[in-house]
Amino acid sequence: MTSTKPSRRRFAGTLGLALLAPVASAGLARATPRSSERPVVMPLPKPTGPYAVGTASLHLTDRMRTDPWLGGRAAARELMATLWYPARPTPGRRPALQLPAGVAAEWQRLVESEPDFSVTPGGADWAATRTHAVTLAPVRPRRGGLPVVLYSPGRNVPRGFGTVLAEELASRGYLVVSLDHTYETIAVEFPDGRVVTVKDATEKATLRALVDVRVADVRFVLDVLEALGRGAAAEIGHRPLPPGLAGSLNLSAVGMFGHSIGGATAAQAMHDDPRIRAAADLDGAVGSGPDALGSVVDEGLDRPFLLMNSVLGNHHDTALSTLWQHLRGWHRNLQMLSASHYAYTDLQAQLPPLAAAGKMPADKAAGLIGTVDPTRSLRAQRAYLTAFFDMHLGHRPDHGLFDGPSTAHPEVSFID
After folding, report:
1. Phi, psi (deg, nearest 5) at residue 351
2. Nearest CA-CA partner of 214 in 134, 140, 296
């Protein structure tokens, strides 16, 4: 097992915008914490779509590419991914865990030592949270095949913290593929028991270099999906695939979304790869001029692009304005001013119970996820992200959701 001590510098590097704006913490701070000796288990909200959800993990090896973060070692690039998909019901089977044990342990070390979290040691059981998806449940077929959506998380953030949105899309008929970007994520656990953590090389790399590697990861995964779409493989990396998956994908309908630098990755990946038809950036900056995180900033996009922001900023800020000026296809910018950066992850659902139980200072939780009501925040994220992909991958109407502010989601502002 490879391990490194988490640091403030490492966690601060996850932020998607250049400046972290202060967030008023009154909403959480007014709550009186309940002291408890037991570690808090933080459940995730159920997906709201009509289908049961299945899941599977994939160990992928790109033998055509040497891992750029291993220095002189000529080792192939290895990745872990999670599949989320509409499934046939499987009564009596326990849902999969949100995080593998090794990843949960590394994440626990970080949040107990990182001042921005200040979680009480032993106060949270990060290894106990379960998803709503059954491992290797049979795929529920869809006429025309399952549209595909890729997910790239923020820097150092495990792919498991994108579960809420991934499950929502899967429950509505999508195959979602969540990626970990090895040696940049706080921890990646492989099937042989290896837990690899952040490398100094990724800590020292420019954000542009990180995005370049991430985009290469995404394009490799798309190649793997094309093979699966042809029914060419019954397993990947010696791990079985869900029954009915091979040959059931609609790879003419591929989208991508990401959080923080994962959002910048989604923009650049769509720029570089025509297979991606629509992309969404959840609170991720792309920079400008010499600080641009990719050629997409100046060359723009001609396909649909959704930008969803927190209090940190919007397309009027330098970190996003140049890209915005070069968007030639359908585009919208939504902002939740009462949300902070990590509201666009599962932490939106998981930090409030910690603060309520007295296991995390309320002002720390507010600094990370904001003061927005967690239920309403996740409801809005699910609604807008699903409607975006339904429109642009499924050619279904949005029923006016993107025409302007909605009384159903008053937390969400439309930025002109």
Report:
1. -75, -40
2. 296
User: What is the C-alpha separation between 1 and 189, in angstroms, rounded?
Assistant: 9
Please state the rounded mean pLDDT for residues 90-104.
96
DSSP type of residue 105: H
Higher pLDDT, 352 or 71: 352
Per-residue confidence (pLDDT) for residue 21, from 0 to 100: 35
Burial class (CB in 10 A: 0-12, 13-18, 19+), 135: middle
202 or 11, which is more confident: 202
Question: Phi then psi for 65, rounded to 5 degrees?
Answer: -135, 130
pLDDT value at position 237? 63
Taking the C-alpha atoms of residue 322 and residue 283, their distance in angstroms, rounded to an integer, is 16
pLDDT in tens, 350-370: 999 999 999 999 999 999 999
pLDDT surpassing 60 at residue 228: yes
CB-CB contact of 273 with 168 (8 Å) = no
CA dihedral 183, 289, 218, 340 (to 10 degrees): 70
Query: How much is the pTM?
Result: 0.92
Closest of 80, 81, 89 to residue 53, by C-alpha: 89
CB burial of residue 232 (10 Å; 0-12, 13-18, 19+): exposed
CA dist list (Å): 374 to 181, 338, 341, 348: 28, 11, 13, 6
What CATH number should be reported for the domain whose range is 8-414? 3.40.50.1820
Which sequence spans correspond to the domains of the chain? 8-414
Are 211 and 293 within 8 A, CB to CB? yes
Helix crossing, 163-171 with 374-392: angle to 10°?
50
Buried b (16+ CB within 10 A) or exposed e, 103-116: bbbbbbbbbbbbeb
How does DSSP classify residue 301?
Answer: B
